[in-house]
Design goal:
Its EC number is 5.3.4.1. This protein is α/β, with parallel strands linked by helices. The protein has helices at 5-15, 21-36, 50-56, 70-86, 106-111, 139-150, 160-166, 183-196, 241-251, 266-274, 291-304, 321-327, 357-369, 377-380; strands at residues 43-45, 59-65, 94-99, 119-124, 129-132, 154-156, 173-177, 201-205, 222-226, 233-236, 256-259, 278-284, 310-316, 336-340, 346-349. The chain is built from 14 helices and 15 strands. α2 crosses α4 (70-86) and α4 crosses α6. The two termini are 30 Å apart.
Length: 383
Amino acid sequence: MAISKVWISLLLALAVVLSPPAARAEEAAEEGIETASGAEAVLTLDADSFDEAVAKHPFMVVEFYAPWCGHCKKIAPEYEKAAQELSKHDPPIVLAKVDANDDKNRPLATKYEIQGFPTLKIFRNQGKNIQEYKGPREAEGIIEYLKKQVGPASKEIKSPEDATSLIDDKKIYIVGIFTELSGTEFTNFMEVAEKLRSDYDFGHTLDANHLPRGDAVVKKPLVRLFKPFDELVVDSKDFDVAALEKFIDASSTPKVVTFDKNPDNHPYLLKFFESSAAKAMLFLNFSTGSFESFKSVYYGAAEEFKDKEIKFLIGDIEASQAAFQYFGLKEDQVPLILIQDGNSKKFLKSQVEPDQIVSWLKEYFVSNFCTSKSNCDYLFLFI
Ligand SMILES: *[C@@H]1O[C@H](CO)[C@@H](O)[C@H](O)[C@H]1NC(C)=O
C-alpha cells in the first residue's frame, strides 16, 4: 500500500524546517489578516458555481483547502499575489479556491479525489483534462510554473541558445529529436507531452547538435531524457504512447532516492513514497565517516536488484525524524535498513554494517518471494 498523501507531505515538510514554530505561527496570523482585507483576485467557488466556472474558463487552477490547515494558510497570500499578476496574462489564467471542508462542497472533494490539503488541480478544456498542480508554492514560482502550463506543452529548440535557456541542469527535461515535425512519432510525442506537462518539461528539435549532452550523431526519431542524476542522459526509440510514458516514468527516478534537506530531491521522494512497490530504506547519519562506504555498497545493491520490484532510498538521520516516527524507528538503531513490502509488512535490520547489506537484502528476497528454488535461481547464485 502506498503511504497516504497527508503523511507524505508531513514527511517532506519536516525534512525542511524553515523557521521555528513560534515564528511560523505569528507569520500565519499576519497573513490571515492581510488576505481578509480588500478584493480578492482568487475566485471563490462552491458546489453551486463550480461547474459553470470550469465551463467558462479554458484554463483554471483550483485550490481545494480547509480553513484549519496550516499549509493552506501559508500558501493563501502567495496564491492571491500570483492570481493578481496572472489575471493580466494573455491568455487568461484563472486561480480559484474551494473550501473542501464545507459540507456543501464535500461532493466536489470526493469527485476530484482530494486526499489532503491543500490540493491544487489544473482544469483545462472545460474540465476534459485535469492535472495535479506540481509546481512551487510561493508567488514567483506559481506564476512561472503556470505561465509555462498555458504555453505549448513542448517548445521547439531551434538553436543551442534555445537549448541552454530551456534545459535546466537540475531538472528532468525531455526532448524529441525528429526528421520532420509531423507524422505518428511526432504526434505521439506531443500527446505524451500534453498529458505529462504538469510533471515534466518537454521540447522538440530537428537537430541534435543543438542539445548540450549526449551523442549528437543520432538516428532520428529519438526521445532523449536529460536528468540531474545517474547516467544524466538516456534515449528511447519507442514512440508508442504507452511505452513512451513508461520510459519517462522509469527513467525519471534516481536509482537511489536521497532523503536529506535538499528540496531538489523532493519530487523524487514524493514519487518514492507514493509508489505501492516494495521499498528498501537505509537510514544513517550522513555526517559520519562510514557514509561513503555505505553509499557505494547500497548503490551497488540497487543496481544488482534493479529488475526486482523494489525501490531504494538512502536517508539522513538529520532530515528524517518524521520518517522515524512514521515507521516507529529509534535513532540508536542506525545505521538501519527497513524494507516495507507491497502489503506494508516491515522487515528491519538495525546496526547494519556495509558488508551485510547485500546479503541481508538477498535473505529478504529469498524468504519472501521464493516459493521454490526454480523461480529464484537468480538469487541462489549469490548465496
Ligand atoms: C551525526 O554525526 C555527527 C558527526 O559525528 C554528530 O555531530 C551528530 O550529532 C550526529 N547526528 C545525530 C542525529 O546523531
